[in-house]
Amino acid sequence: MARLCFPVLVQLVLLIAGVAGGPWQEFLRPQSDVDNDVVGTRWAVLIAGSKGFENYRHQADVCHAYQILKKGGLKDENIVVFMYDDIANNSANPRPGVIINHPNGSDVYAGVPKDYTGNDVNVNNFLAVLLGDKSALTGGSGKVVDSSQDDHIFVYYTDHGGPGVLGESLFASDLVATLEKKHAAGTYRSLVFYVESCESGSMFEGLLPANISIYATTASNATEDSWATYCPGGGQGEAPPPEFMTCLGDLYSVSWMEDSDAHNLRNESFELQYDNTLDLFMGSSDPANHSATVGSTDNLLMQLSSAVHVHQRDADLLYFWHKVRISVI
Ligand SMILES: *[C@@H]1O[C@H](CO)[C@@H](O)[C@H](O)[C@H]1NC(C)=O
Ligand SMILES: *[C@@H]1O[C@H](CO)[C@@H](O)[C@H](O)[C@H]1NC(C)=O
Ligand SMILES: *[C@@H]1O[C@H](CO)[C@@H](O)[C@H](O)[C@H]1NC(C)=O
Ligand SMILES: *[C@@H]1O[C@H](CO)[C@@H](O)[C@H](O)[C@H]1NC(C)=O
Ligand SMILES: *[C@@H]1O[C@H](CO)[C@@H](O)[C@H](O)[C@H]1NC(C)=O
Ligand SMILES: *[C@@H]1O[C@H](CO)[C@@H](O)[C@H](O)[C@H]1NC(C)=O
Questions:
Q1: pLDDT score for 53
Q2: What domain count does the chain have?
């Protein structure tokens, strides 16, 4: 059940759609550095679609992403966060009020805006937020992506998924139609979309038009699973602290985020990040190629190689299995 898998098995589906340069860079460089070459506001929408302590990792990923964007200079008014928010105070949480995304990680929960929590984390609100349509919202903070033509938008979605669907009810056709509508409204210059879920490639493959300035990258192709990481049972240093019975992160997500943490993002373009790290995990299945890389990403690869990775779908089972095991002891 808890299958051991190495990062090289993870593949990247990369769909480049008419964006020149590195949009990721534009998100994370402080505005003062980019005034010369970037006009407009940087927005982000972060969504953890799941709930329950067995899915700890999705909300941990989103909290971590928030901290990175915040450090990169985005303002809270431009970051919209969807998370059920049932983790920090969960009775199963060994560290009340704290969420970590790495075995030795510090708290990533502090400061995260609670725009849409509980049942307000839903497809209707997500699409309304993307479109900047306040009238279509139900509940929540009312924050939407009120963007204009020069703006840049980053969307990060982490959840379970299946062919053509994220979570239980965000269908690829609805998502792509919404993105086309957003483009037709002329309300962004570039949009970068990261998705972590099983079969996440199926959200975009063959569906996302090449001419709407959207750069989408996914944790898996249209027919494969994505992987949870820092799971109970991991090797020395790589397992979560023993009191955690749940996985702390998702492999694809922590790879780009730990890379972002490790680098000075003011200098790094998305291409560089991609070359350095995402490529290691997703671009090549030949381990020999990985030895050519340098610097912190090597460490990252080695660290993650010895971590236990579990299929997204099995990660819940792993949690319940550990829970049962502990309660029996
Ligand atoms: C978690 O508990 C703290 C302290 O009791 C409280 O301030 C906070 O509102 C709670 N958060 C949630 C999401 O319930
Ligand atoms: C994108 O390309 C397709 C096919 O060439 C075309 O039908 C469509 O109008 C284009 N859309 C935009 C927004 O330019
Ligand atoms: C998707 O990934 C699976 C498993 O890694 C692989 O067997 C399959 O060939 C890939 N499909 C495509 C279209 O790349
Ligand atoms: C966490 O810290 C311990 C002790 O310093 C170290 O052995 C371990 O490798 C670290 N784990 C990770 C994933 O960095
Ligand atoms: C990154 O940019 C800053 C100034 O923007 C510069 O001082 C620093 O040396 C750069 N770092 C690297 C590694 O290029
Ligand atoms: C991996 O390395 C080999 C030889 O070192 C090379 O022929 C091959 O093209 C590389 N594969 C990728 C995906 O870069």
A1: 96
A2: 1
